[in-house]
Amino acid sequence: MTEEVQGTTARVVVADDQTVVREGIVMLLGLLPGVEVVGAAGDGDEAVRLVAQLAPDVVLMDLRMPRCDGVEATRRIRTEHPGTQVVVLTTYADDESLFPALRAGARGYLTKDAGGDEIVRAVHSVLSGDAGLSPSIQRRLLERLSDPEPQPAEPVEAPDGLTGRETEVLVLIADGLSNQEIARRLHVSTATVKTHINNLFAKTGLKDRAQAVRYAYAKGLVRPPAG
Hints:
Layout: H1 3-7, E1 10-15, H2 19-30, E2 35-41, H3 44-54, E3 58-61, H4 70-80, E4 85-90, H5 95-104, E5 108-111, H6 116-127, E6 132-133, H7 135-146, H8 164-174, H9 179-186, H10 190-204, H11 209-218
Parallel strand pairs: 1-2, 1-3, 3-4, 4-5, 5-6
Helix pairs in contact: 3-4, 4-5, 8-10, 8-11, 9-10
């Protein structure tokens, strides 16, 4: 363990919706020097409230949680409480999980097979201004940076008060993409995609994806295939 970790105690909030996992992380960190767990949350909303009350140094944030997922909670914490850093601690290391979390402001990203020492190092890395990323996540980022950049989609005029992002989601629905595929394409969480879909359905009066496809064609947002 580094001298920095040994000489500094970071105040941490743990956020995870699974009680056994949450309590296990709290218990593990309680056995290690360099961190003090000051609170535990069962979802993203509770995590944001605890940050407002306790002003911790770091939140260890799960991603898949009810009501308010880890990506949205991270975005709110980094916007409303910039003195608190976020380290994601999740089961998932796929692009759909990783990149939305980093874009939301997370400075660290670990999977739940990380050991206690690795978690403590990540906590202190983000507090010192570095990234707290596991080796596998670092490799994934390097792989992604080596991929060719996707071409931006041509802008389309948004009907019926839809936002640009809602229109983009509508077009991707008409292209036959699932929520998960849309999330990967737009580098957001599936929960965010569902929110956009609910909003665009409410604005347009659509009831299902089949109606959404017909609507997109009727409004000229997509064109039928040639032939």
